[in-house]
């Protein structure tokens, strides 16, 4: 027993060390993160085979939430059980959380929210989200039906800008995908993968996930406590995001900017800064939480927005081999992914475009940053640095 515990501790420490190193060095967004994971865990350390890794990535693409973070959690689970998932998450996420909280302290301590380099960071956000839209649209809306679903999502989200509108759009898009693509081809010869979580624990995690979605808004209304309201907003945002980190932008913007918890300028400055740090883009929540309630708010926001990812990955791992062989489930996902593109375009217009592109020089500089990112293929952190320095020179 003692030997077992010693070996388990060694596994957890090794997992923490490796995931922390990845957390400090994994720039480039979700797709890049999956590449880093593949190189480290499959190629270099042989912790899992190619088929098992592909199986895990497929599951995390299916679920709402931060796909790359969920893959990291899943690898931790497969290596060292449920605690391994937590350790893997902490290592990969904590570096960017700390960096963004320190960024907030810098902004508030020196009162530099109107500095020229902040405008540069806002224009970085324009370039990054435009790039994300192009890539996602090409992949997720290849046919006319899915383009129509994306257009529907765009129009509804722009004309009725509420948090509940986006939930409704996702539900309707899933139903449309369920109907239109109910006979989509499924590869029944895919390999199965065993995950070290029992179905009873998985079911409990799913019950907690859905229970919190229902209970948190009720507690929020009954108590009117700011901490509960903040936790509810971040939890709901983390629960309803399909398509990766960039799509959380409109949900967070709707939750926190109209309510007056932070300004659009502060929101976009933080989003630009989030491009400069490694790790998952969902850690942008740490920035918002720190703006609202200091470093404690940053930590609470991080827990709240990532909690759905844990509950969903723990809750679905044992059932994935059955789910992915249902064509109707896959069809619904195709519709949801198409709607994600429309929601992201709406967010690109408001708040990003109308708050950042005010003059011809803004548009010109944003075009330069976009070209550096897309055509010259500079890493995102260099584009962020160029945006900050250019903003300092242009806007003073």
TrEMBL record:
A GO term, aspect molecular function: chromate transmembrane transporter activity
Lineage, broadest ranks: Bacteria, Bacillati, Bacillota, Bacilli, Bacillales
Keywords noted in UniProt: Cell membrane, Membrane, Transmembrane, Transmembrane helix
Membrane-topology descriptor: Multi-pass membrane protein
Listed name of the protein: Chromate transporter
Subcellular localization, as worded in the UniProt entry: Cell membrane
GO cellular-component term (any): plasma membrane
Major site of localization recorded for this protein: membrane
Membrane-crossing segments per the record: 12-36, 85-105, 117-137, 149-181, 201-222, 272-292, 299-320, 332-350, 380-395
The organism of origin for this protein: Bacillus mesophilus
Pfam families: Chromate_transp (PF02417)
Family designation: Belongs to the chromate ion transporter (CHR) (TC 2.A.51) family.
InterPro entries reported in the protein's UniProt record: Chr_Tranpt_l_chain, Chromate_transpt
